[in-house]
């Protein structure tokens, strides 16, 4: 029977140290620690030892930047107040497109040597027409709109207008071939300094003739004038 060798001689000798896999792992860990240390040194503020902050914009800085870059408010002059005007009264069916004097005096002519001009402060809208008498002629000042309409048979025409004068008259005249065929007229006496609406009617006498609208002012004081606005010519019969 063979003798057994002593155990310390029979077992292979133990190796001291690390295996290649362990050595590789250790090298990797050391490399990672070194890299972390380098990054920490680079990102620290050498003055305070704290991590250096990036160029972050705070809310206060953003507000300051906005206030700096926003365009400065410009001052504007106070708005000029337009003259007060009365609302324009609509006149549907008016045969006169130029009866409100808001654009010009086209189509209107003076009577009695009067001087016509548009003036501010109408009865409707902003403008009215003023007829100023000729001091050398001493005749009533007035205005006329010739060819206001071509008359139709069996038709009644009404001219309504606003006047500002102490006294005077208005008329609808029917003309054929330059001669007066028929006419209707009415006088008025009004309180001074106030607008009043007047009206006159005319029944057709000769179909196809031309209709004219007239208004005159009398007893105008020195420097006075006749004011007329919103002339409305309508037919009452269909």
Structural class: alpha+beta
Order of helices and strands: HHHEEEEEEEEEE
Mean pLDDT: 77
Outline the low-pLDDT stretches.
1-16, 45-84
The global form is rod-shaped
CATH fold category name of the domain at 108-235: Jelly Rolls
User: Rounded to an integer, what's the Rg over CA atoms?
Assistant: 52 Å
Task: Please characterize this protein's 3D structure.
The protein has 238 residues and is of the alpha+beta class. The chain has a domain at 108-235: Galactose-binding domain-like (Jelly Rolls). The chain is built from three helices and ten strands; from the N terminus they run αααββββββββββ. It has helices at residues 7-10, 20-42, 59-69; strands spanning 108-111, 115-120, 127-132, 141-150, 156-164, 167-176, 179-189, 196-203, 210-218, 226-235. It has a five-stranded antiparallel beta sheet, with no helix packed on it. A five-stranded antiparallel beta sheet has the order 2-3-10-5-8, with no helix packed on it. The longest helix is centred in the N-terminal third of the chain and has 23 residues, at 20-42. The protein starts with 6 loop residues before the first helix and ends with a strand.
Summarize the structure.
The protein has 238 residues and is α+β, with helices and mostly antiparallel strands. It has three helices and ten strands; from the N terminus they run αααββββββββββ.
Name some characteristics of this structure.
alpha+beta, Jelly Rolls, 5-stranded antiparallel sheet, 3 helices, 10 strands, rod-shaped, disordered N terminus
